[in-house]
Design goal:
- Strand 1 (11-19) and strand 2 (22-30) form a beta hairpin.
- This protein is of the alpha/beta class and 181 residues long.
- 21% of the residues lie in helices and 22% in strands.
- The chain starts with 10 loop residues before the first strand and ends in a 26-residue tail after the last strand.
- The protein has a 6-stranded mixed beta sheet, sandwiched between helices.
- It is built from 4 helices and 6 strands; from the N terminus they run βββααβαβαβ.
Length: 181
Amino acid sequence: MLTSTLNIPAGSGDISVIVSNQSLQVFTYKPATYNPNTSPLIVVFHGILRNADEYRDDARGLGDRLGALIIAPLFDLERFPTDRYQRGGILREDGSLVPRDEWTYTMIPQIVAQVRSIEHRPNMPCYFIGHSAGGQFVVRMSAFSDVTGARLVAANAGSYVFPTLALPFSYGFGNLPSELS
């Protein structure tokens, strides 16, 4: 649920969304080249410094060239430490599986749906770009969640997940509960 039903304003800004029963700040950029009928949505995932506003700013040139709406959700360190951000919050400390609807990855379709709703574009094309810790998030999101209809770019991730049981999670699918491996 968005805190406003108005369209996202032109230029740089931010909105608050409610996902998985918590408020999340999302930094936005709508370029002058935005077309309300055809422009895509680009979701940018920040690195370990949790500087989503700077990642939004760094993506403005891409938004201008493509006419794309840029959003950069902030996954703050307090609520989203490494296990909840880079590793998606899929495992508890004891190695047991967290219910799927509590994974950080499940917040992303909710954010995208809310932005599409506020823009009145339920089928707005969506792309994901992550850098560093955000790249780790994107790679693991693609491995462990149902992300469809999007392109995913993971740049300069400090680690990657490989499709093998020979490597333990978070580098592979080894040592995971049977539901995931």
